[in-house]
Amino acid sequence: GPNIDPAEYPLAMTPNDPGFHDLSGIKGGPRVNATFVTLARNSDVWEIAKSIRQVEDRFNRRYNYDWVFLNDQPFDDTFKKVTTSLCSGKTHYGLIAEEHWGFPDFIDQEKAKKVREDMHERKIIYGDSISYRHMCRFESGFFFRQPLMMNYEYYWRVEPSVELFCDIHYDPFRFMHENGKKYSFVLSLYEYIETIPTLWDSVTKFMKNHPEHIAEDNSMGFLSDDGGKTYNKCHFWSNFEIGSLSWLRSKAYIDYFESLDRDGGFFYERWGDAPVHSIAAALMLPKDQIHFFNDIAYYHVPFTHCPTGEKLRMDLKCHCDPKNNFDWKGYSCTSRYFEVNGKEKPEGWQDQTD
Ligand code: GDP
Ligand code: MN
Q1: For 73-105, b where at least 16 C-beta lie within 10 A, e where not — what string?
Q2: Would the CB of 41 count as within 6 Å of ligand 1?
Q3: What is the pLDDT, as a whole number, of residue 1?
Q4: Is 178 in the pocket of ligand 1 (CB under 6 A)?
Q5: Ligand 2 center–CA 27 separation, angstroms
Q6: Half-sphere exposure for 253 (CA within 13 Å, toward CB)
Q7: Residue 151 in contact with residue 90, Cβ under 8 Å?
């Protein structure tokens, strides 16, 4: 990364710093090598427009980070025109290679088709969809090695129709870089078991074959209540991610992805990229390389992360209703994350449990 003089550019502004309460005209500090990344269809243009506008207003207008857009179809002129006009940094548009968006040759098409029909009968969300499976496999194993992404070290994933509710008074990319963080999240929850019945079997096999990739100080306690025998379904929600591309491109992660991919669960079940990324991070990264961004307020249907702590919400000019904060509710795994990490929950968490 670049040479940063911390005296000249404090990582995070505090409410006492001049400019904190009126960020207009305030430039961010020096950038690290990072980009926003969005996978989208042409038809998503107005929904991604809303997301971009909020990311720019709350953060990127002061930093002007690049934005990479990826699609399995060529982007049309409207998509490119609208998104380029909204983004303050450079925009890049990539077409996904066929081998990154399709069935690998070892998949039994008949078996995969039967699974889709069966999941359709059982009304499992996206259970009958081929494209959703390609999307999940692409996000699990390929987005970070797409040629346009090879130029960057960190990424921030942004989906259509998401919201950001608070100002961001520092550079989260630089925070990741300076603190050695490799993966981060704002929301966590339990996965729908019908979509991943044998995922943990595959993970267990990978751990046996590749003990060298398992971190000593890992977060197994986040994933399992019985020391690794069974998966408790906890995962970080991957529609928001700020993470290290170098980590995803590491031998450890690639060995992991290839091992899971061979087992076929992206097609014989409906494995999501959220549990796939989360399990990787929890097992292959030391605990202190995973970060929870309490101060990044976020919504993706149907869950909200609204920062705990009234003073923080006022300082950051948040417009989310704290009652909607999902963190401390029963279906969230964030409490468990705090316990596993021996972290103290932010003041006021008890007021947001239901
Ligand atoms: P959900 O959040 O799990 O309900 O899934 P989404 O419909 O939001 O899809 C996740 C991400 O993948 C979003 O950024 C979508 O725009 C994108 N996406 C989903 N399906 C496709 C597809 O078939 N083609 C492309 N190019 N993008 C897709
Ligand atoms: Mn989505």
Answers
A1: eebeeebbeebeebbbbebbbbebeeebbeeee
A2: yes
A3: 35
A4: no
A5: 31
A6: 23
A7: no
Q: Whole-number mean pLDDT of the chain?
A: 95
Q: 3-state DSSP call for residue 110?
A: helix
**Which residues, 6 or more positions from 135, have their beta carbon under 8 angstroms from its beta carbon?**
39, 273
pLDDT of residue 34: 98
User: Is the distance from the beta carbon of residue 72 to the nearest atom of ligand 1 less than 6 Å?
Assistant: yes
- According to DSSP, residue 148 is labeled G
More confident residue, 221 or 1: 221
Mutating to test ligand 1, I would choose from 41, 137, 303 the residue with most ligand atoms within 8 A of its C-beta, which is 41
Among candidate residues 292, 221, 210, the one with its CA nearest the CA of residue 257: 210
Q: Give percent of the chain with pLDDT exceeding 90.
A: 89
Q: What number is the average pLDDT over the span 202-222?
A: 98
Query: Maximum distance among all alpha carbons in the chain?
Result: 64
State percent of the chain over pLDDT 70. Answer: 97
| Distance (Å, whole) CA 149 – CA 198 | 31
Percent helix, percent strand, percent coil in the chain, to nearest 5: 45, 15, 45
319-335 pLDDT tens trace = 999 999 999 999 999 99
* Amino acid letter, 114: K
Alpha-carbon dihedral sign for residues 271, 267, 203, 261: negative
Please tell me the residue having the least CA distance from ligand 1 atom 28: 40
Name residue 335's amino acid. Answer: S
Q: Does residue 154 register a pLDDT over 50?
A: yes
Residue 34: strand, helix, or coil: strand
DSSP state of 145: G
